Amino acid sequence: MNRMLNAIHPDNFFSLFYPKLCASCQRDLRSSENVLCTGCVFRLPKTDQINVSENSLERLFYGKVEIVAAAAFYRFQKGGRIQRLAHLLKYEGRQDVGDFTGRLIGQSLLTSCRFKDVQQVIPVPLHPSRMRKRGYNQAACISAGIAAITGWQHFPNGLQRIRASDTQTLKHRYARFENVDGIFRVSHPEQHYGKRILLVDDVVTTGSTMAACAEALVKISGVSVFPVAMAVAN
Q1: Is 47 exposed, middle or buried (0-12, 13-18, 19+ CB in 10 A)?
Q2: What is the pLDDT of residues 116-136, one digit of tens each?
Q3: What 3-state DSSP class applies to 19?
């Protein structure tokens, strides 16, 4: 019996008592799977926006700030897989969910003609008070996964949120944009002169926060911005 236990790999031994479960369907993961089972990865509600111009995410930036291309990779549906993953990432400390989805996004970006010239990756930042409370930035988890796959330079603290915004819940679309106007600044502008930057967020509704971040970036000489979101809720 002891000989059998010694022959078991430590990861497999641990899984005998604490099996890895799919973050979506809660079924046991195979040794070759991570975070999501193959079936749930296949069933994620893709938007295919990566290869489509004037898509729903790009339209959110019209009249606000000039961008090159934008794409949300999944549809956010109430009670759906992406809502479950977003909740785990944002509220239950599952940073691995962000890294995993970021890697899926990164693989798609490498095959896209619309995003092939990107050089740097920057996530939408949290306000410092929220960062202290949560302990991590969920958008930075996604951007780290993207950078790991693509090899693009990652600047997890490239943008700073210099003041908190009021709640967005009861504001209409333009008021939400005004509410976040001017609350972001670039940490070290000299690191981004002339660069093509992928701006990353988790779930986008009106795009006001991402537009305000993009506005701060395009003030840098020669910068062009490519907003990308894990999901879009509109």
Answers
A1: middle
A2: 899 999 999 998 888 889 999
A3: coil
Q: What is the mean pLDDT of residues 109-113?
A: 95
Q: In the chain, what is the straight-line distance between the N-terminal and C-terminal CA atoms, in Å?
A: 57
DSSP structural state of residue 165: P
- Is the pLDDT higher at 234 or at 80? 80
Q: Which two tokens stand for residue 225?
A: 């911005």
What's the DSSP call for residue 157? T
Per the CB < 8 A criterion, the answer to whether 187 and 156 are in contact is no
CA distance 217 to 222: 10
3-state class (DSSP) for residue 27: coil
Q: What is the largest CA-CA distance in the chain?
A: 70
**Distant-in-sequence, close-in-space partners of 188: CB < 8 Å, separation ≥ 6:** 158
Angstrom distances, CA of residue 92 to CA of 81, 95, 99: 15, 9, 14
Structure tokens given for 12: 């497999």
Q: What is the DSSP letter of 209?
A: H
- More confident site: 14 or 159: 159
**159, 213 contact by CB (below 8 A):** yes
Give the CA dihedral 79, 81, 84, 89, nearest 10 degrees. -150
* CB 57 within 8 Å of CB 41: no
**102 neighbors 139 (Cβ within 8 angstroms):** no
Q: What is the C-alpha separation between 124 and 137, in angstroms, rounded? A: 9
H or E element, residue 160: strand 159-161
